Amino acid sequence: MGIVSREAINQLRALMDQAEEPLQITFKNVHQGYLTETLERFLKARECNAAKAHKMLIDCLNWRVQNEIDNILSKPIVPTDLYRSVRDSQLIGLSGYSKEGLPVFAIGVGLSTFDKASVHYYVQSHIQINEYRDRVVLPSASKKYGRPITTCVKVLDMTGLKLSALSQIKLLTIISSIDDLNYPEKTNTYYIVNAPYIFSACWKVVKPLLQERTRRKVQVLPGCGRDELLKIMDYASLPHFCKREGSGSSQHSQNGTENCFSLGHPFHQHLYNYIKEQSVIREQPIKQGSFHVSFPEPPEQEKEIAKTIESELHKFGNGNGISGSLDNVKISDY
After folding, report:
1. Is residue 286 part of a domain?
2. Hey, which bits of 161-283 come out as E strands?
3. Residue range(s) defining the domain that contains residue 226
4. What average pLDDT values come out for the chain (334 residues) when binned by 10 residues?
5. DSSP 8-state secondary structure symbol assigned to residue 195
6. Which residues contact 73 (CB under 8 A, 6 or more apart)?
7. Distance between CA atoms of 114 and 28, rounded to whole angstroms?
8. In this protein, which residues make up the domain named CRAL-TRIO (predicted)?
9. Three-class SS of residue 61?
10. Are residues 99 and 232 in the same domain?
């Protein structure tokens, strides 16, 4: 649903005006001065139903208060070696901006292993990037381009996607649920590149399960997607794995400033330094151990999608005679 009526926005705004003070405080961190655009996002996520959008937003704000999300950018992942391990196994970065000024986030789906730390560290890292995007990157882009910029585009690299991805479904479902419930409609378009057959097989069965507004956002591009992506961004903003066929999303690169997954890339340097500075400003003691966040119960649709992917990967594995490695991994184990 692309257009939200002024009436629905006014209804939701009136309901939010009645929220208690602790929720009003964290709400300011959510909307960053772009109140109308934020109300529109939650309305879109609930088919423009003001009452449902209000419940979703209040639930989101309660989650933020209960889990101290407003302080998560002052909680560095330490020691540095652990943070490096998280970054090397959870491949994400900011490669540049679209011609419309939207941040371009690159995600190495296929080569992210999520096996160097506990699930809590990966959730903490993911939320920190979300919050840094919303509180620093997007406001900065809005100022630079002179208009509200409250969404981004994501380029998902499927290089290296294997049957072992089944072991990641639990974590990915948690992260997806956190995004769906607390950061709705933050992504304008998802571009899928370097997709192997295993992705195509899963996408064929998952696509019908998605809501129409989500399906419209997903574009599967041929090859590395370079030619199509150059229509919406300059060459300099292309993720490194889109600049030439077969480049892939390796987390290691001789040129750390080009590979947006690298700790040497400006985005990660700025993010790392920002979190350290915030811990000093807020006088937060730096201690080892993850910042635990409560995981929301995945919506029924998320559960169905996860089970469908699991089933499809099992079938794919059986067809290739390698099902043994998958036998002990089930959604219900988590």
Report:
1. no
2. 187-193, 218-220
3. 72-281
4. 86 96 95 96 96 97 96 93 95 97 96 93 96 97 95 96 76 90 96 90 82 89 96 97 71 61 95 94 69 78 77 65 34 30
5. -
6. 128, 131, 132, 135, 274, 275, 278
7. 32
8. 79-239
9. helix
10. yes
